[in-house]
């Protein structure tokens, strides 16, 4: 239990391993299997977590922290609709890069202490939609409601892909087409919506990023 024994890399490895085990079902998460997966002792698990509830909370928080990092990386430009589209791309990229965490974030019931985890990431999308409304690209509406529609679209497509019911190419195309349809329904014109989506797509081909194509 000494400070020297605490290693952030091992803590992260335990979280990733826990997420993979949880994909098999809650009964699969045991200290023995967790320790074996990471190559440490069962006692070492308790150096980082007081118990399985704390570990499950850490898995969920880690997932949203990684999503927040993806969203923060896209930045803000003078095209709010492109920024909203880029947020969708960041959401998909994070889900595909961290599928083991994504399943636990959005496809398992949250424990009581997790109720507020993830709110900040959704508020990022709400703020982007509000900017598009203020810019006159979207008609006056409840930004929270519009953001919920966009999130439900993204989640549905990601879930279909992770379940093996949609290829990555199909998922990417569907995100673009459904996103354009929603932008137009929100009040944007076809040409502007298509232009903003192309701008957003180009941001994920930056040499410093991992383009979606590399995840095929």
What does this structure look like?
The protein is mostly helical. It contains 10 helices and no strands. It is elongated.
Short description:
Helix content is 68%, strand content 0%. It is mainly α and 216 residues long.
Summarize the helices and strands and which ones pair or pack:
Elements: H1 8-22, H2 31-38, H3 42-48, H4 52-74, H5 80-97, H6 99-106, H7 119-134, H8 143-162, H9 168-185, H10 190-203
Helix pairs in contact: 1-2, 1-4, 1-6, 2-3, 4-5, 4-6, 5-7, 5-8, 5-9, 5-10, 7-8, 8-9, 9-10
Cα separation of the termini? 42 Å
- Uncertain residue segments: none
Provide the succession of SSEs: HHHHHHHHHH
Largest sheet: none
Radius of gyration (Å): 19 Å
- Number of β-strand runs: 0
Sheet/helix structural class: mainly alpha
Query: Strand percentage, roughly?
Result: under 5%
Percent helix, as a range, is 55-70%
Number of helices: 10
The rough form would be described as: elongated
State mean pLDDT (0 to 100 scale). 88
């Amino acid at each position: 239990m000494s400070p020297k024994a605490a290693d952030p890399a091992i803590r992260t490895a335990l979280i990733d391993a826990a997420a993979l085990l949880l994909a098999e079902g809650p009964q699969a998460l045991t200290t023995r299997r967790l320790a074996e997966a990471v190559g440490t002792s069962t006692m070492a698990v308790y150096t980082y977590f007081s118990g399985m509830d704390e570990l499950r909370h850490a898995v969920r928080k880690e997932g949203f922290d990684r999503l927040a990092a993806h969203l923060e990386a896209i930045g803000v430009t003078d095209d709010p609709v492109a920024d909203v589209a880029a947020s969708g791309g960041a959401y998909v990229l994070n889900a595909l890069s961290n599928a083991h965490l994504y399943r636990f974030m959005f496809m398992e019931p949250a424990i009581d202490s997790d109720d507020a985890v993830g709110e900040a990431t959704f508020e990022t999308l709400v703020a982007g939609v509000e900017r598009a409304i203020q810019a006159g690209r979207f008609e006056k509406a409840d930004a929270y409601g519009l953001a919920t529609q966009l999130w439900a679209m993204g989640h549905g497509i990601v879930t279909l892909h992770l379940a093996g019911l949609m290829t990555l190419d199909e998922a990417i195309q569907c995100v673009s087409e459904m996103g354009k349809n929603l932008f137009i329904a929100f009040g944007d014109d076809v040409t502007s919506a298509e232009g903003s989506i192309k701008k957003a797509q180009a941001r994920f081909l930056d040499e410093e990023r991992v383009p979606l194509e590399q995840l095929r």
